Amino acid sequence: MDKIGFIGLGVMGRPMARNLIKAGYSMVVHDINREAVDELADEGAAPVSSAREVAEKSDVIITMLPDSPDVEAVVLGPEGVIEGVRSGQLFIDMSTIAPATALKVYQALQGKGVDALDAPVSGGDVGAKAGTLSIMVGGTDKAFKRAKSLFEVMGKNIVLIGEAGAGQVTKACNQVVVAITIQAVAEAMTLARKTGVDPAKVRDALLGGFAQSRILDLHGQRILDRNFEPGFRVRLHRKDLAIALQTGHEQSLPLPATAQAADMMDALLDQGKGDLDHSALALLVEELGGVEVDA
Amino acid sequence: MDKIGFIGLGVMGRPMARNLIKAGYSMVVHDINREAVDELADEGAAPVSSAREVAEKSDVIITMLPDSPDVEAVVLGPEGVIEGVRSGQLFIDMSTIAPATALKVYQALQGKGVDALDAPVSGGDVGAKAGTLSIMVGGTDKAFKRAKSLFEVMGKNIVLIGEAGAGQVTKACNQVVVAITIQAVAEAMTLARKTGVDPAKVRDALLGGFAQSRILDLHGQRILDRNFEPGFRVRLHRKDLAIALQTGHEQSLPLPATAQAADMMDALLDQGKGDLDHSALALLVEELGGVEVDA
Is there a contact between A163 and A259 (Cβ–Cβ < 8 Å)? Predict the structure, then answer.
């Protein structure tokens, strides 16, 4: 059984690492947050003090970090993963980062004989705790096969999409569709409200036809309930749209509706609403139309 | 059993009227297209030569016309429905028109003791033929109850949303969500293509999570198959977005993503692609990014 190194024990990483411990894996863990490390040490993981050391003491290294610069620093920076690796190891980044960064990390590790997968997830902390994350994977078939049993501990909808970077591209596509669909639902429900039509009945009717979506169902209900507790925070979704827009930009591909959704999220951030659930896009559409809704 | 008058025997109206004939209703029909009238006359409907005459010879009058000005002319114009009605009749407009026009027609008919419902549909000509249309209804509960058995011949997802105009508002909301969701799917799938990632695999992966929608499923598949035969034409969807935007404008409610989708459709119309299926929005996103796709 591969020995697992896990770096990044935040809201997502902690329950993911915990599920691996529960599944019987021998674990080495690291995070800059000492408290998170201590918690997992109590549950049986071996704490170490650098990413380099994680690489030295494990066979498969998993990272779950906030953003592209974090992954780049932890893997390629001083005391980073790359300083501790040996040929034959497998590196899996499960963070949501830029496809270009995923590719850079992949190539650097290949140079050391280490295979790498980009394997971002969706499903949030609820999915991380329940071990039901969707996992979108980019990399070689061989590496995917080696990682599969680990992924099955953490998720359930696990797909190898393509070569290195393809997992991150898929995640970016996912975040594009989710953001724009929330905007669609927000505009429709606000149009109903402002014309005096019950948005709950409109949502019900629309769920029966071509307008059906999981967003209309779940986020539509959130908007009706005025439940903007995250869920998935506006500020994190805005970061993910930055990745999609930057990737489009590198490819000279304009993404007009994505850019517009990002602008809407910027306005929410400016209002101090970045820690609300992303369904709070509806608050902005309502405000644009001078619609006041009783809680 | 109410005697039914049906005005507007186009792509939608013809199969809807036919289903009513098959269900055993005695029918009076009218259209400016003589051929359509003759076809239904052969099947047992009684043709008459004006909307006024339809009203005179029926108990329930149904209209299925292209746009707001058509409904206004047929109901309120010379030789129109209003010249032939008598108290106690029911008028049902199943066209997709502006809520403001629906309200105007409703009020004019109320003045003659005639109740009215706005009952736009979704499901296209396929749904019209199969009798499986979704029907979104605005009007009184009493009128809805009277119309229900007729609606059940033509559709299956039949909802009374609210007062007069509420059916049209719901249809506008539906068209807003569908247009913006197609744009979302088009941007995501084009981003995948341009970065060298298989859009079919991205679609599959996204269908398993929060990005799931009927549009991603059906229109996503159309985009993969390069199947832009309508379906629902860009030019008709653009007309429906004009209704949504005008309704928003009357209420001082900006609908930024709706406006953007309308702009994209205008560009398609300008390219002579107005008679393609609305999933052709993907063609424009691909063109913006210089993406060439083999058929």
Answer: no
